[in-house]
Description:
By secondary structure, the protein is an alpha+beta fold. It has 2 domains: 3-163, CATH 3.30.1330.10; 167-326, PurM-like C-terminal domain (Phosphoribosyl-aminoimidazole Synthetase, Chain A, domain 2, Alpha-Beta Complex). Helices cover 34% and strands 21% of the residues. The protein has 12 helices and 9 strands. Strands 6-8-5-9-7 form a 5-stranded antiparallel β-sheet. The protein has a 4-stranded mixed β-sheet with strand order 1-4-2-3, with helices on one face. Helix 5 (111-127) links the parallel strand 2 (96-106) and strand 3 (131-139). The longest helix has 17 residues, at 111-127. The radius of gyration is 21 Å and the shape is flat.
Amino acid sequence: MHHLYKESGVDLDKARQVKKIYEPIVKTTFNENTISPLGLFGGFYELKDYKNPVIVSSTDGVGTKLVLSNYLKKYHNLGQDIVNHCINDVLTSGAKPLFFLDYIAVDSLVIEQAEALVEGMAESCRDSGCVLIGGETAQLSGVYLKGQFDIAGFLVGVVEKDLLLEPAKVKNDDVLIGIPASGLHTNGYSLVRKVFNIDNEPNILNKTYQELDATLGDVLSRPHRSYYPMLEPILSEIVAMAHITGGGLIENVMRVIPQGLNVNIDYDSWVPENIFRLIQTQGNVSDQEMWSVFNMGVGMVLISDQKNVSSILKKIQDSWIIGNVTK
């Protein structure tokens, strides 16, 4: 049955099998706001207890980090990466993550791979009280080379309008507070692959460099950190927030700084993780390029009035003053 379709690259039997595998995993993320059963053409989410809600949305991918994961046969972390990246993006507006949808595109369906991806997504959704409300797994033979795949994610959050974090609330002399990243997160992996010649020598991912506390592959595949559980209790104490992703520290911080203001960063206030030093020395990468590609150890930057700084530093572990807003 369906033998011609299968020969052309689409296995409907595997598609049905993987849906059955997804179902119990996805249901672990459901809550009282999830009012639709699985299998409908759209997911229903009932929004409750908001007076003037603003919907905040985000979409992203994990870049070429998935190439490394393919070499390592590690996929659970990629599921975490895509959810946490999107959660952090909506968090910068002060939003609570409501629900997430995934898109997995493959050359041919490998059930164990798809299951690991969705398990990682579900874990991160549970950690932040977010519902994995739906998704799509597409078999696209002829679009991707054999063994290749891609994932993308879409997340919707909500915040009361008067509690929005936004550039308009930032003023001169506000303080910038840094929060550590958990490695590279999901940016800079094309450069990393070039520096270590990974595509030609993938076994180098199993090497343990003196500078690292694990193999290169283990360090590079660490999941993108979610800041929502940590920062949700102190959102009322900050005015803006920047997620340090592609483009590096300054470019992303300036996205939440209003016109006419600037920032002063104290680069001596922290030491980037060893992986960044290793990348720079192995590839002879300039300081300018390092700081414009990687997060350099800073995953999120909070902007706060001076009166709240002491409180935030006490409540948020490992946070530190990274700079200030200037004219």
